[in-house]
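S1.2 Input.
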Amino acid sequence: MFEDKKLKVIVSKWDNNEMYIIDADYVKKVNLHDCYDQYGQQLDAEAAGDYSLKNCYCDSMENEMKAKGVEIFGESFSDMEYDKNDLTIDNAEEIGLKEKEKEINDFISKFEEDEAYYIECEAIQYWDGHNNRSAIIGGEEVGAEYEYEDSELEKEILNEFYTLERPEYKRGIAEVKGEKYYFRFSQYENKNFCICEVSERSLFDDEE
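S1.3 Output.
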């Protein structure tokens, strides 16, 4: 079962008995600001920690952009204000640069393209039945909820997983008991990021 897929095991950073088998092909390197939180809200430049004109905390970058703009568009450019969502000038007419508005917007976009630094992460993007979600894998610097399991433990889990019979679902859930682990399969969309959940069996589990 699933022998044709490249499988990995990830573990919750908050509970090391909460593990998931995933299809590694669904893990992509993406900009952190393209990920979604638990409520389905896309992260912005501030939350992602980007060095960007879209980040209101990057004063040095904004000041550098304005200084270069003054060299091109004149002293009044130092009083420019811009929309941090779409990087377009807000007050071109007020500072006497209305006729150069398009040129200014192109300049701002090019400056962002050349100077910005976006934080990247590994993530599985998925639909949970209600919202877009992201299962972010990595360290604290990207606010990850999951990390890759230890390679030896991963090998042990996958070796047992490959011996399982195809699960039989009841009301969208299938639970398969292995020698050392439980494998819980779900047809519900909130688990779209994984193939199944994995948990270690207790010593007190009844043998069947």
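S1.4 Remarks. The two ends are 23 Å apart (CA to CA).
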